[in-house]
Amino acid sequence: MDNLTKYVPNVHFEQIPIKNLVSNQEYQRNLSINHVKKAASNFDLYQINPVKVSRRNGINYVFNGQHTIEIVALVSESRETPVWCMVYDDLEYTHEADIFANQMKYVKPLMPYEIFMANVEAGNDKQLIIKDLVESYGLHITPSGCPGGICAVSSLEFIHDRYGFHILDLTLRLTIGTWEGEPQSLSAGILKGIAKLLNIYGEDIKEDTFKDRLSRISVKEVVRTAKERRPGSMGFAESLLLYYNKKARNPLPWDQLYARHSQKAVEQTAENEKAEKISSNIENEKE
């Protein structure tokens, strides 16, 4: 048994108030206020991991878990709140930095499909709704591209969260009705591009017109044009709109596409400024 102790870290666990933890080491990444706010709004007590702490000269230095303590502080509205800490008493600063830099080196991250299916097994409503919707069109969620399968699960969740169930439903209906389930038509770019157009133009996009005009264009041509125009879902939205408007007597206005895009940029700028202000307040609290 003695030979096995070398595989067990020399640590002990303590509940330490957040106010007594220091997490501003130079090697750490910048605190993401957006991440803290998002996690706080979806707070789950069972998702909290122990904070890794190096106790040097009587000071508790956090080298893994700085976001965790800020999330708990935000939810509890107090830095008096204790968190469980895994305390190391034998680390030097350089060793802490080395652990921080390499702690995720050999950890295999979960794939979007694995996370999605775990949520299905957990009975979470959003993933069950999306799965049922996909299957109602004779398709299934899959970890890799194959006939009759959708592997762009992150895009399905994005569309559901950003635009709502109705847009996701109509996006799938248009995609399948236009290209009859061709695997490449169920890719992230195509799905997000169609959803963006539906969100911006609404009922001005006629389902029959979309299917008639776009079914004449191969998915490969849509993808090629999208990549030539610009990256991301906007490139796909432009490509799809280009072919939708082709030879139309009353084409959909292009400026409407960019007006919404510009408004989103304005909103994001305001959100970034708000996040910076919150970050500044947190730093002032620490000082």
Shape: elongated
**Can you summarize the main beta sheet?**
5 strands, mixed
Widest sheet: strand order?
1-5-3-4-2
What's the average pLDDT? 87
Hey, roughly how much beta strand do the residues contain?
5-15%
Main structural class: alpha/beta
Radius of gyration using CA atoms only: 25 Å
Number of helices: 12
End-to-end gap: 46 Å
- The structural domain count equals 2
Ranges with pLDDT <50 over ≥5 residues? Answer: 262-270, 283-287
Estimate the helix proportion, in percent: 55-70%
- Succession of helices and strands: EEHEEHEHHHEEHHHHHHH
Number of strands: 7
Q: How do the strands and helices of this protein lay out in sequence?
A:
Elements lengths: L10 E7 L3 E2 L10 H9 L9 E6 L2 E6 L1 H11 L5 E7 L4 H10 L9 H10 L3 H12 L3 E2 L7 E2 L2 H11 L1 H15 L8 H14 L5 H8 L4 H11 L2 H14 L8 H33 L1
Parallel strand pairs: 2-4, 3-5, 6-7
Antiparallel strand pairs: 1-5, 3-4
Helix pairs in contact: 1-2, 4-5, 6-7, 6-8, 7-8, 7-9, 8-11, 10-11
